[in-house]
Amino acid sequence: MGVCPLRVYRVRLAAWPQKAMIWSRLVKVVVQVKLTPDAVQARALERTLPAINEAATWVSKVAFERFGLRASVRDLRKLSYGELKAQGFGAQAAQHIIKRVVDAYTALRANIRAGNLGKEGSPRRRKAESKPIVFRPNAAHTYDDRCLSWNYDAQTVSIWTLDGRIKDLRFACSPGALKQLIGHRKGESDLVFRDGKWFLIAAIDVVEPQVFAPQDWIGVDRGIVNLATTSDGDNHQGRRLSRYRRWQARKRAELQAKRTRSAKQLLKKRARREARHAAHINHKIAKTVVAVAQRTERGIAIEDLGGIRERVTVSRDQRARLSTWPFYQFGEFIEYKARRAGVPFIEVDPAYTSQKCPVPWCGHTERANRPDRDHFCCRRCGFAGLADVVAGINVRTRARSAWVFVNMPDPTPT
User: Fold this and answer.
1) Which of 39, 80, 152, 282 is the 20 to 30 Å CA partner of 316?
2) Are 55 and 158 within one domain?
3) Which of 293, 289, 401, 408 is nearest to 348 (CA)?
4) Residue 199 · residue 32 · CB < 8 Å
5) Which distant-in-sequence residues (6+ apart) come within 8 Å of 356 by Cβ?
6) Model confidence, pTM
7) Residue 216 sits in the same domain as residue 314
8) Nearest-CA neighbor of 128 among 137, 136, 119?
9) 77-132: per-residue pLDDT in tens?
């Protein structure tokens, strides 16, 4: 088997420090605060959010009957604004409901064009195109600065409801989140009701620092047994996470066998808890990798694993494990943390990274180089090592080649 050619799928703008200062780039960060309403305030919120979503479902039905999937804000305003006002919604709230419906249909059309709902005529796509969009009773709703105002000193908000304006609604958050809100929050926030608790989620834009020119690269290999292994030999194992998920799977099976309403509610609660646990683990690992790269003035390179679930086939007993593998989330965490720290970030071709010999003068690529999951042994030169570390080294080597390529001077015009 010959040596695989180098193919770089994507190179972020962060890889060009000399070009990064041409314009200011922003990192979008989500800040979540917990609302602590009293009994009266809670009743007002509990009445308002389902009513908003019921009205949005009605507007969606009108839009679908008159315009199919191509409604515009102007058309829907003529048909539904008066009715929304008659139902007790304020002018700005009615405008937001209409805009939210239009945005939902815009997103649906984009998913259809991208093929995310299957090919034309597929059952999933036909189902999406044949009926109006329905909004869940407790789906999140967007508030702008006319419907929601913040008092950071007192840590309270003033928010519009169907029962009038609620003032002095307290919220709680960490000191770091409060500092981000004070310094960067602008525009809209989402009101969310989850697990019996109220939250406000604000998306803020933080200016990226200048990206430094890397002295070298850290290659990161992602896996299931070892969540992340770097070219330096640092290994972040996923055994505890795997054990936790197996335990959750057993509990999930026990609850599913009961088939009661309370069991279904508990299943949803457990699913969210498991997702939070996996995100926490990914945050910790990503933070560690980015901190090492920033301290040593190196960039971070990972494999582009887009579409891996469609490309890779596994045995029946491994399917659930592969489908719940949070590799994409981990990659997203590394990318945005690197951008916030000014660390260069790059994604390279993952082909044969665990089968190629990392010795520069060898480079032999063969499946037999990896006799088992954990070990690597080159059949040509005899180089041996841990398979995940070898993969990280190959990722680092491809990042070096990509960096040289993207920083080549432009050819002089003749």
Assistant:
1) 282
2) no
3) 401
4) yes
5) 3, 4, 363, 364, 365, 369, 390, 394
6) 0.72
7) yes
8) 119
9) 999 999 999 999 989 999 999 999 999 999 999 999 988 888 888 888 999 899 99
Report CA 193 to chain centroid distance, whole Å. 20
Residue with tokens 């279904």: 264
* E strand spans, 231-297: 235-237
Cα separation, 286 vs 385, whole angstroms: 24
Tell whether 217 and 124 lie within a shared domain: no
Q: Which of 161, 187, 207 is the last residue of a domain?
A: 207
In a domain, 261, yes or no: no
pLDDT for 226-270, tens place per residue?
888 899 888 887 677 777 777 878 888 888 888 888 888 888 888
84 and 165 together in one domain: no
Asked if residue 224 belongs to a domain, the reply is yes
Q: Examine residue 324 and state whether it is found in any structural domain, yes or no.
A: yes
In the chain, the amino acid numbered 96 is: H
Got the DSSP string for 152-191?
TTTTEEEEEETTEEEEEEEEE--HHHHHHHHHH--S-EEE
Can you give the residue range of the structural domain that contains 387?
10-25+211-239+283-406
